């Protein structure tokens, strides 16, 4: 048998079911740990209850959310953090593998350096990385291809002495490329 116990917070009221059931000759009462608005149960409604015969005072409502709600919520939050952490590891790892593949299997071309610019799409602690922009005209199609390097966390302008930069292009898809910036010094940690 269900009664309702209101729980008030700043802007809302939720209702927890207060359940009475008989165990042997004793009437046991417990308040469910879940609450909702509108109430999930009606006063006087009969509900299924789970408990151990040896411990009827730790009874729970026999409904999915009453039994597994906390685990589902914590599991969902954990899954979100797992996806974010996994993405932070897997995306750079995949990028390195693709770059390595292109550096070994791609067609090397010499693209003319057009500019060194700030990548305003990325900002970490208020800083924006630089990118080298180069272009190359395909002699077979006469189409111009524009290539952008990966993010560089220092201004590479003073280290660029040449007018062209090597780019490794996937022959099957020129949109897949790797701009070789290995001539630049490594950034100190």
Q: How is this structure best described in words?
A:
The chain is an alpha+beta fold and 189 residues long. It has two domains: 2-67, no CATH class; 100-179, no CATH class. 22% of the residues lie in helices and 39% in strands. It is built from one helix and ten strands. The protein has one helix spanning 64-105; strands spanning 2-8, 13-23, 26-31, 49-52, 55-61, 107-118, 130-137, 144-148, 164-170, 173-179. A five-stranded antiparallel beta sheet has the order 8-7-6-9-10. Strands 1-2-3 form a three-stranded antiparallel beta sheet, with no helix packed on it. A hairpin with a 2-residue loop joins strand 4 and strand 5 (55-61). The longest helix has 42 residues, at 64-105. The radius of gyration is 32 Å and the shape is rod-shaped. The relative contact order is 0.11. The model has no long low-confidence stretch (mean pLDDT 89).
State the helical fraction: 10-25%
Number of helices: 1
The pLDDT mean sits at 89
Residue stretches low in confidence (pLDDT < 50, at least 5 long) are none
Choose one word for the global shape: rod-shaped
How much of the sequence lies in strands comes to 35-45%
* Helix/strand order, N-terminal first: EEEEEHEEEEE
How far the N terminus sits from the C terminus, by CA atoms, comes to 66 Å
Question: How many independent structural domains?
Answer: 2
Q: What strand line-up does the widest sheet have?
A: 8-7-6-9-10
Structural class: alpha+beta
């Amino acid at each position: 048998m269900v009664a309702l116990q209101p729980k008030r917070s700043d802007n809302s009221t939720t209702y927890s079911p207060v359940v009475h059931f008989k165990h042997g000759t004793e009437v046991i009462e417990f308040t469910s740990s879940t609450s909702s608005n509108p109430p999930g149960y009606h006063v006087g409604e009969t509900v299924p209850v789970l408990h151990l015969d040896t411990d009827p005072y730790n009874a729970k409502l026999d409904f999915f959310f009453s039994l597994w709600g906390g685990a589902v919520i914590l599991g969902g939050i954990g899954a979100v953090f797992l996806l974010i952490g996994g993405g932070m590891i897997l995306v750079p790892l995949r990028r390195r593998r693709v770059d390595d593949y292109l550096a070994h299997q791609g067609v090397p071309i010499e693209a003319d350096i057009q500019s060194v610019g700030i990548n305003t799409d990325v900002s970490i602690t208020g800083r924006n990385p630089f990118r080298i922009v180069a272009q190359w005209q395909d002699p077979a199609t006469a189409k111009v291809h524009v290539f952008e390097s990966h993010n560089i966390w220092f201004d590479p302008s003073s280290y660029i002495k040449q007018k062209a930069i090597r780019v490794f292009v996937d022959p099957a898809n020129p949109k897949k490329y790797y701009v070789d910036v290995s001539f630049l010094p490594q950034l100190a940690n």
